[in-house]
Each structure stands twice: as structure tokens, then as C-alpha cells.
């Protein structure tokens, strides 16, 4: 149902990113994972599909936490968000609460999550179902230097480019404040992605093509701090 993968090959400069993608499927399969606060949020959701995706994404994120971090109680990890909507896994390691960088995406029954194994690398993941909508909106988000090599289908091409920019905005942690036209995404024919934001922040990513969806996982090429001073 879910499969776990490493979007980037091992390297000496950065610890790996661990990601998972799959279908949300049956709500009952994941119902044991949310904490009481999350159940309260779920009960406020009107859409069954939204509930299923929301619970599944957090269940899988806790599974990744159990696989990658030596925390005391991985299934008790809390998923919190800052004022821009950026999620973080808060967990206990050796009796101390720590925050671990992560990213969550869900769309039309699909769920994708990723976790930075070093706990601090800025990461972003996005999953999108292939549709006409990104083609219609291309003028609002695309940059003249955007490129998706080897993809002739306009729907898949612009869905991929949109997904690149969604994932990049999550790396930046600025939410809807980001002007997507300032994000340049170049995807080669092997699915490797280079992203530049306004000439100030570089990111690398990988793309995965599914039957009816695309998944993009990105990470910053260097630590992002307040000193970067990048603007939306």
C-alpha cells in the first residue's frame, strides 16, 4: 500500500532524506496512530476523503520517524505546524523534546511524506494528480526558464512543474507568500531537479511518475537560516 524510498543517492555532505508515498485507502487501517488532539481536528473535517488522507499522512510520517530516529516513543511523536503551515515532527530523544524537519502532501487519495534524517535539512514534498488545471494556470506560475526534459504531454509537464514549485515553497517555509514565478525549476530526463529561488536559494530534487500522479521531493542545498534574508 505504501512504499518507502530514498529520493536522493547517499552522499558525504548530507544525510539521506526518507520518503513514502501511497494511497490513503481505508481509514480504519490508520486509526490507531493519531493523538487525541489530532482526532479532535479530524472530527471537524466534513470530507471523508480529507479525513482519510490527513490521518494516513500522519500515520506514515510516524512510521518514518520510527525508522529513522532513535526517539523514545516514535508513535507518540506530535506533528505541529508554524504560522506559515510548515510541519515539524516533535518527539522525545533521550528524555528531551526535539523537532525534526518533515513535509506532508496529499491529493485525491494519494499521500506523500518525507523526513530529514539529520533533523534539520529543509525539505519539501508534493504529490499532484495529472490534470488540465496546471496547463490552464501556467501563465500564472511558470517562468520562461522552467524546463521538463523529455515530457511531451502538456498535462503531465505542467503538473510536474507546478509540483516542483509547491515542493520548493515548502522547503522555503513561506507558504502562500512565495511568488511561484520567482522559482525556476529544471527537470532533466532522469527526473533530477534543480531549483533556483530568486537567485538566492538553491534546491535539488527528484521526480517520480505514477500512473495518474507525480511526486516531487526537494531539499535545500545549504542550511536555511534567518541570515539568508530571502524575500517572497
TrEMBL record:
Q: Where is the 4'-phosphopantetheinyl transferase domain?
A: 122-203
What top-level branch of life does the organism fall under?
A: Bacteria
Q: Which GO terms describe its cellular component?
A: cytosol
Q: Which Gene3D superfamilies match?
A: 4'-phosphopantetheinyl transferase domain
Entry annotated with the keyword Transferase: yes
Q: Name one GO biological process term.
A: lysine biosynthetic process via aminoadipic acid
Keywords assigned by UniProt, alphabetized:
Transferase
Recorded GO molecular functions are: holo-[acyl-carrier-protein] synthase activity; magnesium ion binding
Q: Which family does it belong to?
A: Belongs to the P-Pant transferase superfamily. Gsp/Sfp/HetI/AcpT family.
According to UniProt, the name of this protein is 4'-phosphopantetheinyl transferase domain-containing protein
